[in-house]
């Protein structure tokens, strides 16, 4: 067996997939989550309570850990204040490798919360690898867009006609295991899917797969943000969302790289195959 590995955010879309791939590859895994009831323990998998806001959970989560997969809470402008103290603790206990899940494009904005975390990680003195994925395909199947598709037959977003090189969490998880195995220390990779699509094209692909029409309605930014507020999203996350979708409208998320294939030796999943694999989510 490989050394023990801590996955933070282990009950989230990406964390679940990282845990699954690590276990299938032979790692012993600690799954860190605020609610351990969301993790089903098994051979080589231990669920451990972990909360960035509660430093008393750090010691148990890091005990016996060799490597760490670090992911910030989604759309959280307070990510530096939460993650950096934990990184300092990880260094203190002797973590040998941190794989940090950042986001595509943050290296172009030194004030971006995840870029601040990147800079802290680069300077803390622990071997690291930074992954910067684009928007997840799983946002459509199990994330915040899924209920719109299932219950309203639509996607209501301020993405304009901007295109995005969506990537599956399955591909990101395979990259995590690959960078562990080959020790890609001091590297940063931009992770994208193999094609760029706008949301009209996404709606068409899903429509064809499930046999009913799904439409994309391009909202104004104000309308999208007000809808998010009405659903109870905190204002800090609403403003974060505004930044994300302004980047989509500006075309910044249409970047494509070959980093997934370079690291794993396999081409990333195309969106039409992802939809066929997950169409029951919308039925």
Describe the overall structure.
- This protein is of the alpha/beta class and 283 residues long.
- It folds into 2 domains: 130 residues, NAD(P)-binding Rossmann-like Domain (Rossmann fold, 3-Layer(aba) Sandwich), CATH 3.40.50.720; 115 residues, UDP-galactose 4-epimerase, domain 1, CATH 3.90.25.10.
- A 7-stranded parallel beta sheet has the order 3-2-1-4-5-6-8, sandwiched between helices. It has a two-stranded parallel ribbon with strand order 7-9.
- Helix 3 links the parallel strand 4 and strand 5.
- Helix 1 packs across helix 7, helix 3 packs parallel to helix 4 and helix 8 crosses helix 12.
- It is globular, with a radius of gyration of 19 Å.
- It starts with a strand and ends in a 5-residue tail after the last helix.
- The relative contact order is 0.13.
- The model has no long low-confidence stretch (mean pLDDT 95).
Oligomer: single chain
CA-atom Rg in angstroms: 19 Å
Which parts are unreliable, with pLDDT below 50 for 5 consecutive residues or more?
none
Shape: globular
CATH level-1 class of the largest domain: Alpha Beta
Strand content: 15-25%
Count of helical stretches: 12
List the helices and strands in order. Answer: EHEEHEHEHEHHEHEHEHHHH
Strand segment count: 9
The biggest beta sheet reads: 7 strands, parallel
CATH topology of the largest domain: Rossmann fold
Integer average pLDDT: 95
Strand order of the largest sheet: 3-2-1-4-5-6-8
Structural class comes to alpha/beta
* Alpha carbon gap, first and last residue: 40 Å
């Amino acid at each position: 067996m490989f050394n023990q590995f801590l996955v933070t955010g282990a009950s989230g879309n990406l964390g679940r997939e990282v845990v699954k791939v690590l276990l299938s590859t032979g790692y012993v895994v600690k799954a860190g989550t605020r609610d351990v009831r969301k993790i089903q323990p098994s051979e080589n998998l231990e669920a451990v309570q972990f909360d960035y806001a509660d430093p008393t959970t750090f010691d148990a989560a890091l005990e016996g850990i060799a490597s760490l997969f670090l992911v910030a809470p989604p759309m959280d402008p307070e990510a530096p204040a939460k993650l950096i103290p934990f990184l300092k603790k990880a260094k203190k206990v002797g973590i040998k490798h941190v794989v940090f899940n950042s986001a595509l494009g943050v290296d172009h904005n030194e004030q971006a919360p995840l870029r601040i975390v990147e800079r802290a990680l680069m300077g803390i003195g622990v071997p690291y690898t930074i992954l910067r994925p684009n928007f997840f395909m799983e946002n459509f199947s199990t994330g915040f867009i899924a209920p719109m598709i299932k219950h309203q037959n639509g996607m209501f977003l301020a993405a304009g006609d901007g295109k995005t090189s969506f990537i599956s969490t399955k591909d990101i998880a395979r990259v995590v295991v690959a960078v562990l195995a080959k020790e890609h220390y001091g590297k940063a990779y931009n992770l994208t899917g193999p094609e760029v699509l706008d949301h009209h094209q996404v709606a068409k692909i899903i429509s064809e797969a499930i046999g009913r029409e799904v439409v994309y309605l391009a909202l104004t930014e104000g309308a999208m943000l007000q809808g998010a507020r009405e659903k109870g999203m905190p204002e800090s996350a609403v403003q974060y969302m505004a930044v994300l979708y302004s980047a989509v409208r500006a075309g910044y998320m249409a970047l494509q790289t070959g980093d997934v294939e370079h690291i794993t030796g396999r081409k990333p999943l195309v969106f039409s195959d992802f939809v066929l694999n997950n169409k029951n989510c919308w039925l």
